[in-house]
Amino acid sequence: MSNHPSHLPTLKQSRHATLRRFCAGASLILTLNTMAQSVTVSAPAPPLAPGVIRQTAPADSPFAPDYQEAVSGTPIEFGQFRIHPFFSTSYMQANGLPSGLGVNVDTNIFTFSPGLTADVGEHWILNFNPSWVNYSAASMQDSVNQDVKLIGAATIDAWGLQFSEGFQSTRDVLAETAQQTKQHTWATLLSATRSIGVRTSYQGSVSLNERYADKAPDVLTWSTQHWLTMQVSPKVNTGVGLNLSYIDFPHSNQADMKSIQYLGQLTWKPTNKLNLSAQGGLETRRSQAAGTESMNSPTLQVSLGYQPFDHTTLTLSDFRNVSNSYFDDTLTKNKGWSVSLSQRLLEKLNLAITYSDQSSDYTTFGGSPAPASSILGRSDDLTSFNATLSVKLFQRWTLAAIYQRSKNISERAGLALTNFNFATTQYGLQLSARF
Description:
Shape: globular
Number of strands: 21
Largest sheet: 21 strands, antiparallel
């Protein structure tokens, strides 16, 4: 694993250099999300959309109803600012939580997370959500996490434009590293959509994702993606897309990468209770290192939703992809599936259950020398079960009981890699409010 010198204090300088390259028109890529999952429990973030989008979104928009509920109430108004404060606090007991390679501990976790969502006029929305995380175990480091996101939207002639900028600073326990991993991430996106005739539309975007970490190589992911979609019938939409990517490792000797994805997508809603969404294709990755071979891999993301009753939703999903590892000169081939159930009970209680199973194989390009970490050949199987039972209190308050169990089995050539094996159980209470 990388053992880079600490360069997080110079993050601002690196960020400015990156923006200069972005404005100069350097090559852009599609954001390829890593599948490193946080092992600790965190509160879900509400969907965000500026007022101009919420006002024009159709009634069956997938995010508009959730967002309207999230910001219901009387805002605090300052001129063009309409502010909705919120907070959450939780107390969890965690058993077997990874705190270092091969070391698992029992600890209490106390989290306090205030925040605010602010509409700035009708075209901008800002979300700010810091959190203080305290562990009772001496081997775990307390942290102050940050989560900031700004989204803007506008319509110019026949074009719909959207811009977003996000920043996160975390010290979460990741399944891939089996320990707390401090990282700063930036996400910048500019997208445009336009209708072409009655049934056809175009959507294009350029984006930049940046990850600066203390136990992993820094990664800058440039992307541009282009989609042409067509409404075949009132129930069927199809599309073809092209994603071009360039992946830069600015603070290590790791060779940069190029990627191209040829994609297709399908959405099908045969009834009001059933809907299918699928996107997939072929990705070709090339390393800039001399003598290496290209890697061809399928990419797939499928989701099937079923709502037999008004307050019952069942969702099945499956995915396949390749992502950048948290180790030098290493990629992970990921595949997994999940099933989730959302059910209202007794008019006031809400039950949410999710089970997921993900496998990751660590590999590199053909012809490339083995990395110093000797992580090649590692294979992980991460399973997770999450259950939350919540109840509304006094209209704006929610009390939830949370249970989560995660287990990772890591091996190489049939032998267990005990440094990355763990089985952790977490349970506790969370109190939250939105105003």
